[in-house]
Amino acid sequence: MAFSPAASLSRTRAGRALRRPQNWVQLAKFAAVGASGYVVNLVVYTALLRGAGFHYAAAATCSFLVAVTNNYLWNRLWTFHGERGHVAYQGARFFFVALLALIANLVALEVLIRLGLPEITAQAIAIVLVTPINFVGNKLWTFRRKR
Length: 147
Description:
The structure is a single chain. The protein starts with a helix and ends in a 5-residue tail after the last helix. The mean pLDDT is 85. Helices cover 81% and strands 0% of the residues. The protein is an all-alpha fold. It has helices at residues 5-10, 13-18, 21-51, 56-79, 87-114, 119-142.
């Protein structure tokens, strides 16, 4: 019997999850919420950096906190509506995942700036780079279905 990566994947938890249409809908909703958070993050970051004279790391931290609040509310109310648990308990988990993503974002931002990218461009790229951390953490931990 020949080894088939596709056949092996289809038997795994990930393979079963990929065949469920509701997971793709949920991913699309998460991406839409993420896009709004992306815009919020960059607008606040630019305003703090250019308008208020913040250091890029402080501006990134503040803008991340504003965007993560936006994302939590929309993900709780829309994306993961069926998996809503206690608001404070879920909020604490969401904040923990966001904190990990913020740390990754700040590391990526620092590296990209040291490589010579402009601060706003570097932040735009850093946000995209850490998005998978947010989705996986929130899907599998913050908003996981209780069985």
